[in-house]
Amino acid sequence: MVNFGYTMMCEQAGPTQLADDAVRAEQAGFDFAAVSDHYNPWLGEQGHSPFAWSVLGAAAYATHEIDLMTMVTCPTRRYHPAVVAQQAATIGVMSQGRFTLGLGAGENLNEHVVGAWPHRTQRHEMLAEAMEIIEPLLAGESVRHSGTFYDVPEARLWDVPTDGVPIVVAVSGPESLELADRADGVVVVQPDASLRRPGRPFYGQVALCYGLDESECRKRAVDQFRWFGLQWPVMAELPDPRAFDAAATFVTEDDVASAIPCGPDVDKHVEAVRRFVEAGCTHVALLQIGGEHQGDFIEWSRSELLPALHAAGA
Question: For residue 12, what is the domain's CATH number?
């Protein structure tokens, strides 16, 4: 059976609302809640970007059953890997074992705030080395590491959940897929069955724009998500929201609506999710566009969307 998640998108809501929405998502019947970990929003119109780990701490304390995860954290520039391990272990303890650490190679948008953005090849090498530090720390081991990118003279985590913290890695192609071979699962943004690793959790994320007025939803989607079709090689390199705005200048409302279901028709939204399920995803996070529309989306998910997804065999 597929697990359906709710996305706490930090780029479009403040920290208190995000934690409150996680509580509402649990009450609505979502299986997990995923949080984005950004320093900047993709576009200025989104208007937010609080510290994801503070949000996770609040959500872990305020919820009781829903699983939590990062989708995803970059452990190579903005955070040192040893600090990521401590953050993950703390949320794992606070949530009583409900936390999964999602890792990825990151984007210039968020990581350049602490220094130069490295080449893609080096980013993958950095992520691989970061995992060499994070994995044993989360297993409760003492770590001494002197590597190409990171030094850890000596580190140990003093608060670690009894069963550790699962690690899943975001992949987009063969290079990043090699990194995922050592992880507990895989995260994708496109329904690509070739990226699946049999026997391991396979996470996807679907952007939706629910509302009673389809025309208004289409306008909201293009206003806040017109960057969505830029493809990962572009998205990973652009430095700030102004660059994303410029790159998406010629994206039309029809372009966005063709990729993102908009409006109240539950069948449209089920079909968008179905593509990820048919690709083999075991977990699908649903991302509602528009921070001020989260309450309506969560209630609609409780009453219509989640029952429809289960009824459709997803």
Answer: 3.20.20.30
Is the pLDDT at 314 greater than 70? The verdict is no
Question: Which single residue is written with the structure tokens 């996470």?
Answer: 203
Please say if 38 is a catalytic residue.
Answer: yes
Under the banding of pLDDT at 50, 70 and 90, the label for residue 172 is confident
Q: Strand, helix or coil at 41?
A: coil
Q: What does pTM read for this prediction?
A: 0.97
| Residue of 26, 38, 125, 269 marked catalytic | 38
The mean pLDDT value of the chain amounts to 96
Task: Give start and end residues of each alpha helix (H) in 100-169.
Answer: 108-111, 120-138
Is residue 107 annotated as a catalytic residue, yes or no?
yes
Distance CA 243, CA 241 (A): 5
Whole domain around residue 100: which residue ranges? 3-311
Catalytic residue among 11, 64, 65, 107: 107
pLDDT computed for residue 175 by the predictor: 73
β-strands 202-208, 185-188: how paired?
Answer: parallel
Residues in the chain: 314
Domain count, the chain: 1
